[in-house]
Amino acid sequence: MALNKPYLDVPGTTIFDADQSRKGYWLNQFCMSLMKAENRARFKADEEAYLAEWPMTDEQKAAVRARDLNWAMRTGGNIYFLAKLGATDGLSFQQMAGSMTGMTEQAYRDMMIGGGRSAEGNRVVGEDGNAQGAPAQSQAWKEWELSNQEALAAQILGEHAARQTGGGGTPAGHARITASVYTSHVPAIGAAIDLGKTGEDYWKPLFAGYEPSKQWMRENKPDVVFLVYNDHATSFDLGMIPTFAIGTAAEFVPADEGYGPRPVPKVVGHPELASHIAQSVIQQDFDLTIVNELQVDHGLTVPMNLLFGSPEAWPVKVIPFHVNVVQYPVPSGARCFALGQAIRRAIESYDEPLKVQIWGTGGMSHQLQGPRAGLINKEWDNKFLDRLIAEPAELAKVPHIEYVREAGSEGIELVMWLIARGAMADVAGGPAPTLKHRFFHVPASNTAVGHLILEN
Question: How far is Cα 352 from Cα 274, in angstroms, rounded to an integer?
Answer without folding.
Answer: 13
